[in-house]
Amino acid sequence: MKPDATPLDDLANREYKYGFVTPIESETFPPGLDEEVVRGISARKGEPEWMLDWRLRAFRHWSGMREPRWANLKFPRIDYGAIIYFAAPRTRSRPGSLDEVDPELRRTYEKLGIPLREQEALAGVAVDAVFDSVSVATTFQDKLSELGIVFCSFSRAVREHPELVRRYLGSVVPPTDNFFAALNSAVFSDGSFCFVPRGVRCPMELSTYFRINAANTGQFERTLIVVEEGAHVSYLEGCTAPIRDENQLHAAVVELVALDDASIRYSTVQNWYPGDREGRGGIYNFVTKRGKCAGRRSKISWTQVETGSAITWKYPSCILLGDESVGEFHSVALTANRQQADTGTKMIHVGRNTRSTIVSKGISAGLGQNTYRGAVKVLRGAAGARNHSRCDSMLIGDRCGAHTFPYIDVANATSTVEHEASVSKIGEDQIFYCRQRGISPEDAVSMIVHGFCTEVFRELPMEFAVEAQKLLQVSLEGSVG
Amino acid sequence: MLEIRNLHASVQGNEILRGLDLAVGAGEVHAIMGPNGSGKSTLAGVLAGRDSYEIRAGSVSYLGRDLLAMAPEERAREGVFLAFQYPVEIPGVRNVHFLKAALNAIRKHRGLEELDALDFLSLLREKMKVVEMDEALLQRPVNEGFSGGEKKRNEILQMAVLDPRLAILDETDSGLDIDALRVVASGVNALRAPDRSILVVTHYQRLLDYIVPDRVHVLLDGRIVRSGGRELALELEARGYGWIEGPSGAKPPAGH
Ligand SMILES: Nc1ncnc2c1ncn2[C@@H]1O[C@H](COP(=O)(O)OP(=O)(O)OP(=O)(O)O)[C@@H](O)[C@H]1O
Ligand SMILES: [Mg+2]
After folding, report:
1. Most B-contacting residue of A432, A447, A458, A459 (CB-CB within 10 A), to test interface
2. CA-based nearest residue in chain A for residue B140
3. Structure confidence by residue, pLDDT tens digits, B216-246
4. Size of interface A-B (CB pairs under 8 A)
5. Distance from chain centroid for Cα A304
6. Could you tell me the distance, in angstroms and rounded to a whole number, from the CA of residue A452 to the centre of ligand 2?
7. Range of A170's domain?
């Protein structure tokens, strides 16, 4: 008796509804990377000399580096000479007000559910819209600046707040940190900058919405967030890209700095184009994200929901410098079809009585490969440091894989580090139980997976949690039946 | 309502059901008894559409339709409910959310409007009274960490909310204290109606003091070997299964 195939047999094509291309003319550099290209990008953006020097130092360092191959990822060699390193929508230089944004770009963001007119925007969310690595609009700037909060494109910050940028840029992720961070430091085109002054609680969620459009173009944005003493900000990041047959490189850097008693909550819903069922196309996502808890009782909390990209390589980390500072990492990573993810975190305990929490939920379906890689390092001076890590993996079907690599390095005997891990196969029993209650197999899988991730979703701001849940559902479509 | 003819079902090459016949009319309550391993849960699973069984021969007609051709969720939406012998845990999914999703899937299929949170809660409150279940269990993940008795009550609550036409209870009385047994029985009795049928799998005649069956059947080695009124249950309780002849004519070995 087989009225239908077993629900977990196969992972069919998933629909990617953000796969459209915006018909807009863009200005691009010829492919390839040398000093001239770096100078060209800097000149194109009208940057001061210190910025150019910074880029050139990074470029020279990068030229002598090799692409890292230690991750549990299989992909062909990337030809860095074939990539275009700068693309920008060709519109009037930079719109003076939101009403002047190119209508084609406005339509693009509307289609993505991100209205760029403030009166239509999600209540309580300010958006920096980054299109092909160039910031095209930032909402609610005036309202925020009344509180002394700076929220603008990176380029603008370089022009208008050079002292802040110079002070903090590269202070968490040095330009020489790793291959992809060095590359980004040399060629980054734009991104978001945020500064929250002493004692201010940012009254709205700040968000950057990244959109890749141009073909054959690498995407290199940079985000820098600085939160002063006793201040707080919650930051959201979303990303999508068109469906294309070739792979595209995305190498971003995010740096967070929290001073005494400051807290930063950084949430990501990553939905870059994942490639098709046969593994054609999709984004190669190599991202360096790190936060520094620079003061006493500073707190940085990363939450990520990673459902897109052909390859994900990212380890949002915390350096817990200040005494009693707190680092958190909450992650859901889903790999379906032929997607691969090698993701996790690093918690580096430097200060006394520092605490960190890691919750990682990996879901693999189809031929997906999902690796958790995490490091907990307790330095000699970190008396009373505490870490708790939990890594759970769920397998849907029997052709996918889950892998866990926890590294623990403790140099202080008064610290406690706990690691728990589990791997479960989504149960035929669970699915049958749901179906016996009238629930379709698709809804059953999505419900069970959602239940598995519930702890992480709780960490997301409200609207984002709903979004993330929908995304997971779409990503799993076709993983049953 | 339900008519099973010459049903043969195997698991991994072992034939478990070997020519089972059973008819349950509308409005009737039938009890199925039989020794461990005789195929009672297999029968329940086959009726609900669990796909680990291979149907070698036979037919099952439910409300005039070919039940075996229907997907499990379709059977559920058409009114087949199975109270599981071992209810399944679903971590992270709140019980109340699960039940609402199930009810709305069924209502949608029946052309009824989906219930919103408020209407659903008031329906739920009313049904909760029958099973005397602790409200806190609604907010907890489905069956996770529930005691054995709590799981069984939860099954009965689901049954009451989903309003089935054919309810199959697989040893819902096992492991229950006397109070819980009463609760399960009153849940079932509340469901008794002329257009509904109930199949109760049990090892204990005690349950049948509360749920008085129209018919009692003995399942042995994959077949119904004897049927009778409620007095058959009393006789089984007194004498065990040893005196009943198996389908092959041989008596089952002692302690089977
Ligand atoms: N997946 C399986 N693989 C092999 N044998 C199985 C499987 N499932 C059931 N069986 C066997 O089928 C037979 C009938 O099992 P079933 O669960 O239907 O019995 P039951 O009458 O419900 O018993 P109990 O009273 O103990 O609940 C048993 O011998 C059991 O071991
Ligand atoms: Mg049984």
Report:
1. A432
2. A451
3. 999 999 999 999 998 898 888 888 888 887 6
4. 94
5. 7
6. 29
7. 27-314
Separation in Å, CA of B215 to nearest CA in chain A: 26
Residues B30-46 pLDDT 10s: 999 999 999 999 999 99
Determine, yes or no, domain membership for A35. Answer: yes
Q: Do A439 and B162 touch (CB under 8 A)?
A: no
Structure tokens at A17: 């509804």
Residues contacting ligand 1 via CB (< 6 Å): B 11-12, 14, 16, 34, 36-42, 52, 85
| pLDDT at position A1 | 31
Q: How far is the CA of B16 from the centre of ligand 1 (A)?
A: 8
Q: How confident is the model at residue B204 (pLDDT cuts 50, 70, 90)?
A: confident
Quick: pLDDT tens for A156-210. Answer: 999 999 999 999 999 999 999 999 999 999 999 888 999 999 999 998 888 888 7
pLDDT of residue A12: 32
Residue A226 scores a pLDDT above 80: yes
ipTM given for this complex: 0.94
Average confidence score pLDDT of chain B: 91
Phi and psi dihedrals of A171, rounded to 5? -80, -15
Measured in Å, residue B1 CA sits from the centre of ligand 2 at 23
Residues 448-477 of A with CB under 8 A from B: 448, 450-455
Residue A435 domain-assigned (yes or no) = no
How far away is chain A from the Cα of B30, in angstroms, using its nearest Cα? 21
Three-state SS annotation for chain A? CCCCCCCCCCCCCCCCCCCCCCCCCEEECCCCCCHHHHHHHHHHCCCCHHHHHHHHHHHHHHHCCCCCCCCCCCCCCCCCCCCECCEEECCCCCCCCHHHCCHHHHHHHHHCCCCCCHHHCCCCEEEEEEECCEEEEECCHHHHHCCCCEEEEHHHHHHHCHHHHHHHCCCCCCCCCCHHHHHHHHHCCEEEEEEECCCCECCCEEEEEEECCCCCECECEEEEEEECCCCEEEEEEEEECCCCCCEEEECCEEEEEECCCCEEEEEEEECCCCCCCCCCCEEEEEEEEEEEECCCCCEEEEEEEECCCCEEEECCEEEECCCCCEEEEEEEEEECCCCEEEEEEEEEECCCCCEEEEEEEEEEECCCEEEEEEEEEECCCCCCCEEEEEEEEEEECCCCEEEEEEEEEECCCCCEEEEEEEEEECCHHHHHHHHHCCCCHHHHHHHHHHHHHHHHHCCCCHHHHHHHHHHHHHHHCCCCC
Average pLDDT over residues A18-47: 86
Identify the nearest ligand to the CA of B40 by its number. Answer: 1
DSSP class of B67: G
Note the residue count of chain A: 481
pLDDT in tens, A277-308: 887 888 889 999 999 999 999 999 999 988 88
SS3 B39: coil
> Which residues of chain B have a Cβ shorter than 8 Å from any chain A Cβ?
9, 46, 48-55, 68-73, 75-77, 81-82, 84, 87-93, 98-99, 101-103, 105-106, 109, 141, 158, 162
Summarize the confidence of residues A250-264 as an average pLDDT: 96
Cα–ligand 2 centroid distance for B159 (angstroms):
19
* Residues 418-447 of chain A whose Cβ lies under 8 A from any Cβ of chain B: 427-430, 432-441, 443, 447
Q: If you average pLDDT over every residue of chain A, what do you get?
A: 86
Candidates B38, B50, B82: which one to mutate for ligand 1, based on the most atoms within 8 Å of Cβ?
B38
A394 chain-B contacts, CB cut-off 8 A: none
| A199: in domain | yes
Structural domains of chain A, count: 1
Residue A126 lies in a domain: yes
Atom of ligand 1 nearest to the CA of B34: 21
